[in-house]
Records
---
Amino acid sequence: MAPKTITVIGSLNTDLVSVTARVPSGGETLTGTSFHTGPGGKGANQAVAAARLSRANPHSASALKSKRESDKGEDVDIVVKMVGAVGNDEFGPKIIEGMKEDGIDVTGIQVVEDQPTGVAVIIVESTTGENRILLNPGANSTLQPQSFLPPSPSSPSPFNPPPHLLILQLEIPLPTILQIITTASSPTPSSPKPIPILLNPAPAIPLPESIYPSLTHLILNESEAALLTNRPVSFVEDPSFEWSVVTQEFISKGVKNVVVTLGSKGAFWASSTSPPPSSSTDTASTSGDKTGIKSGFVPAEKVPMVVDTTAAGDTFVGAYAVAVVRAGAGGEGGGELDLEKVVRWACKASARTVQKEGAQGSIPWADEV
């Protein structure tokens, strides 16, 4: 059977990470405890997460077993393709080579001559693992809408063949994101059904209401959910806040599956198409209502120590994507998607990530979750 494809369109950056006991105040200079660089960008991180979480660590015993099975004719079941842009500088080629090592299809990555590779300056508090990020997009800003127009007699489809799931974030220009969504959700002779789309609206900016019916999956955190529903962040951070209000709001706008990640608390999910909940005996909770929306809460996994939360959300997205594609056609229709099970596994993968420093270096492989 041919492998299923996950295409990620988004940012590719180099992360410049300083670790300190606390973030300096305005005008204050502090001495950090460590510094490192590495590949990053939400698009790249999510592609790496999907690639790693779809297979075993190539250096592990389970991977060697899989290779023996592959030699007998059994291939990997998921291929991840990255579409984005880097500069022709000291960072760009290293990013591409690193993605190749993770088994990612990099044929969609452009090398831009007159722009630097995107850079993220990250400060991590060693006491909490929390981070603050300043992003300079560089070559990421060169991804323009005209590269993703619908097929015509003079230009082929930008999605040929169409992926089983398309993952987007908001670190490339918004007009480009909107054009991608329009093209991917419009049937063509080569793709008679809309391509399932997963949007992670980060960093959060206001979005047109017209895009929501095109989204199969919406994954966002507390602050992003607050901005997109015109609520103060302090309001949604109240422990008594009912997340079902927010998820139902997105579903009423046309989104099929919504997940709000809640950091160390876990994640709240809602779906208009999920099958009945499983007979789980753990602390996850599920409910339904007369509108047909099913929802539930999955608690975060307990970890001994949170070291760095930088790529936790991206790991969640990658794990989620792998699970829904394996469930069938990106989770579209048929009642095949057990969203509670998907979210539980994504929470588990994220818990592995926060126990290590760095972005992509902290993302686990499938056999490590």
---
Amino acid sequence: MNPPSARPLPAIAQRAQRLRTSAIHDLLQLANRADVVSLAGGLPDAASFPADALREASDRVLREQPHAALQYGPTEGIAPLREWVAAHLRAQGMDFTPAQVLITSGSQQGLDLLGKVLVDPGSRVVVERPSYLGALQAFALYAPEFVGIEADASGPLPEALAAALPGARMAYLQPRFSNPAGRSIAPARADALAALLRAADAWLVEDDPYGELWFDAPPAPGLIARDVPQGAHLGTFSKVLAPGLRLGWIAGPQGLIDKLVQAKQAADLHTASFNQMLVAEVLRAGVVERGLPVLRRIYRERRDAMLSALDANMPEGVAWTKPDGGLFVWVTLPPQLDAAALLPQAIACGVAYVPGDTFNVGAPARNTLRLSYSTVDAPTIRGAVARLAALIHETLHHEPALRSA
């Protein structure tokens, strides 16, 4: 039999044609080499995963409730987990009931569901600059008009939000220890932003994956807790327990949750029953509560190592954020440098990072980059930052080809 003749595949949807694998993504595959220290990824520290507690909880679930754990379940999520999330949010000043909580397959699925339910082609979606790349990718599939608003050390600028909100469908914000900037919204700034959002005919999507990873003191409540009734809150167990379990949540007004449940039914029917019951069991046993102080100590030590290394080694003209929690430091290079153009040289020096332009909509931000301290020990961080600083110093003085046009 002759092989079928080669011919073009049938057409795919126009929205799928907007999907891209970036050159940066391809380049960062090189960061998996043993001789490269990756300060690029935002993964939690794998050594902190409570494997023994999860193994014990797994045995209990399969011994005591095997049929329920291995059977289909409700799209909304199991009741004990939704009750825990509602109580957790009430403690932060958000008045959600268990019926207003949807358990998702990671908070990334929550972003996709919100895009499906809230975003039409051409809908205006307001995001801070810089913003979480996963959210930009999730929403982009639904063809919005992104509007980026500038921020300072206290958070998004109220005047920028006020100018962007008229006609907007949604504002996506991270109130605590944002990815990639490591920035939290200061209380007075949060009050001003909440007042603007209350008066607007736009949804607030509040994403809070890092809020429990504070170092010295708990952060102030977010925006929904400041009486923004049209707010949807996203959370996750990935950063405080284990990302491989793929468990997150959306909490929001009942009418929105009802539509999100319908969208999730079409997507995957429900989040894995066994994983939900496993997490409910470890929550009941206090595993997360006991583990959080350990996580905070690990990440605070690594944050301190990174900040001290930046301070000791970076040349004049380089600035960076000083996060009070989370996993990231945002670095701004002198304006003549291009972080993406510099990345191959950095990898050759044994250091990887994420160029900052990929986190931005609107005007380019080529002289920025994100560093993560989550998966690398303090001595290794210090050495990697010293090598990166030496490369930046050399580039400023001798490598014009790696500067921005």
